[in-house]
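Blackboard transcription, Thursday session:
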Amino acid sequence: MNPDNAIQTFGLTRYFSKRPVVQELDFAVPRGSIVGLLGLNGAGKSTAIKMMLGFLTPTRGSSQVLGCNSQALKPEDRVRIGYAVEGHFLYPWMRVQDCEAFGRDTFPRWNRENFYSIVDRFGIGTTQKVSWLSRGQRAGVSLASTISSDPELLVLDDPALGLDPVSRRALNETLLDFNDSGARTVLISSHMLDDIERICDRIAIMVAGQVLVDCKLDEFRSRIAAWSIESSTDPGLSGQIPGLIHSHRRTHSWLVTVANPNEATLSALDQLGAVSCESAEITFEEAVIAYLARSRRSDTFLTGARAAS
Amino acid sequence: MKALLIKEFRENLKWLAVGLVVFSFVAYSWLPAVRFSSPYTFRSQIDNGLSAVVGLLGGLFAFAIGVLQSAFDLRPGPRAYLEHRGVKSSQIVIAKLITGFTVYSASIVIPLSFLAVYLARVGIQSIPVRPAQVFPSIVAAFFAFILHPIAIFCLARCASWWGTKTVPIISAIAIAGPSFGFFSLLVFSTNLWIWLLPAYVVLLAIVCWAAIDGWQKLSLNPPAGQASPNGWRVNGVLILGSLVCTLIAIQFLSPIASSFRVAERRDYDLKFDLLTGEPWAVSIRPEDLLKSNLTENKASIYGCKVEFGVEPKEYQLLPKKLPLQQMHGNMAEYVETGMFKSTRYDQVYHNMNPLWTSVIDARGYLLRYSVVDARHPILDAIIDRDGVHPPKSLPGKPFRNLREISGSLKSLRAFYDDNGVYVLRQHRSNASEMQLYTLVDGSVLGAYQSDIHHAEKNRIQRLIVVVDGEIREYRLLDKDNSEEWTHGIGKEGDDGEWIENRVGEFQEIRAELFKSIAIPKSIIRNDFYSLLRTQAGYVVQLSSFNRKHFLLGFDGTVTELPTPSNFMVTEGFGDPVSALVPPVVGVPALLSHYIYRAKRGESTELVQWILEKKSMFLTLAGISVIFVGLSMWVVNRMLRKRGISGKLRMAWLAACIAFGVATPLIVACIYAVRVREKCPACGKPRRIDLAACEACGESWPKNDLHGIEVYDHEKNPIPVGV
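(Written on the board underneath:)
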């Protein structure tokens, strides 16, 4: 394993019965980075995270976290990893201060002040019962419990799910603070693309159990391009555009998104015989959605156009 | 650990309330004073009955707590939240076990303690039950707790319901069977549970350990092919459970199989000719019994003589004057003394006088209760070896192993214990006045009453006492040295004339040794099942399982008598279904039985029995071989499907010889089915969990490149110009 990576997987594969959910995953999270793991529901993000943390046995392949085999993590290894589970699970009968006490007794390097400062950032009273808290407040307590254990690596599985904008901002600020020194690593799985764009150094996009994108955010932006093509038919159906990610219909034209454009791409676009073909601006969000839409090949939810195979 | 314990108690203390309600109801419903509605139900059997109920409900309660404690924490979110900390999985399971045991034991011990306190407060003055008799219920509850770790173990091992969850649950629940089996032995033998309790504790420890292993090693949703647990504890529990499951299934199959056997079933009584000692199987035809008001004396009796090597024929009408008499057993139950043992309730005495009933207390006292008011029986007298005492306190010199002689002795209640034979006389006009006579003083192994043949003297009964190596016959004499006396009312003689009894005031009676013969060493026993005096000698029935009969002549000769065995088709061992019993269970059972018999000097009998039943044994062996072969075929297919290697497969095939039909179930429990898919290289099915194809050795191909991959590391170079 490369010591510069906090997490690394080697051909990680997982089947549920006869259905592959994660396939031959070769993925790495460099130390000191914030990595956003993106993908549609069912793309395999949570399954991959569970395998990385040893909560699920891979069908084949392996993974390492902080230099340890994921399937043999000991308690002393786990305390170096903070993990906030999907849905912000907390014991409903506990009060916020009980959560702090529970964490204090079960983590050796517990930072009490940190816990209360994060809880305070989310505006939560310490005597409140967990079952009374809103989803955003529960996320705050969950995040406080995870970060206060002083981990080297933070793994968050869809932490922004159902959060209001204020809570999301508090979450983002907390993560940036956590990574402030550059010595700590964060892997965050999320559907909130603007949050990911704001806080992450790198992104990885999973489509149907495979990682199609794994690079720095800037590189991703630089290697995705789009053209606005005026045509009566879907240019994507021609099958001649190399690197075509997705095409979808706008009011009078088609927006064609392409990865790794080069001369061959331009040549292919010329040969389409379209009325017009102009380079178009594409946002980060549109680029990611173009990838995610590929998993719905037959009938895309954006336009109804067929994506190229 | 402290935090885990607090968490477990906080989450599960509520089940204590449920347990307290359930077991308080059980304890309350068992209060003898509440249950007594008539003298006929004057048998609470608190140690046996309550133990069974507490054991059964306790097992269910323990299993439920285990499920409730585990199911919640095994969901993905809670599991990650709990386990992703600086705690070991073993600490989590141990905290669950401690909490579960605390809640469980408190739920049971608190109500039962109140019951014991109640019994102590009321005392034997009105309830023939001692507080100590509650103790076996607590032991039963302890035995039943094994279902708690079993529930944790089963839930931790969950991939799919069939194959990796359901089968272990069924088999693991079945493990509770042996523990309840232990307990039933415990009830009947005080000494045995001292041996069984450590064995049970070891079993409990193994199951707890398996639960910890299951929690640690078995993921919430392990992939096919890796669901097989590692470690002998998990596999050991599964193998044991599967064996017990198989035996239970055979038990269920057995009556179904035997119901297809066509045979005439006819109840018969075994009677003996009082002149010659020959056995007769006699019966009253059902159609005769249906006729109005027929008693045995007036009904036509059918029967046939029992002879060696002669198949029984249709019963013939027997002449009424045939001097047949049924044997009297001593009704000996191996009731050992001990504080936790039950009292025995005597119905015979109750029938003689419905206002009184008596109890043989396990401590060795005979307690007599007045039941004028059935709901409030009152202790009337305490009888011990010294005589009859008022019910103030327990006097000294209790009986040792007190038993009642079956049938009345001269219409008197007669008892014997290890130190003598006693008779209890009750005043005819004042029943509360009683006297105890010691007829025989000395070591006694068994005592029987036997009528003298009517050709000699009617109304004469003799006392037959078995002592070490000797049978002694006593005459029962009154102060006039006459045997022709009785304490009961008169009866009708053979000629129809009413014969009044010689009944006097309380008079001295004594037993005079009439004759004694030595018991041959070949049949010497601590106890005979039954004994009858005939003019040819004593007919004794052995207490051993085959209940053989012997005629001990007065001259010391021994003759084995034929025993009817074909009248009733109840040969359980001969049932073909018994061939399904796994040899690993059946052979030790047969051997232990053989050793047991050999110790009693009956080894040759077993060999003879096997030789006699040669055809049956051959049939069973044949069926067994067929089923072992069938098991091998099934196991081979199952193992191939699960991708088990050649050597291991051969080992399991060999194991079929030991485990028999249980082997497929064991394999299903231990190994999950391996999923295969078509190899992209050679096209043959290959296991999805292996890196290389078993057929062609090729690795799995990397994912197809779509030309849209964006990587910034060298491992997966960016394809250009797809």
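Lecturer's comment: Residues 157 and 218 of chain B are 6 Å apart (CA to CA).
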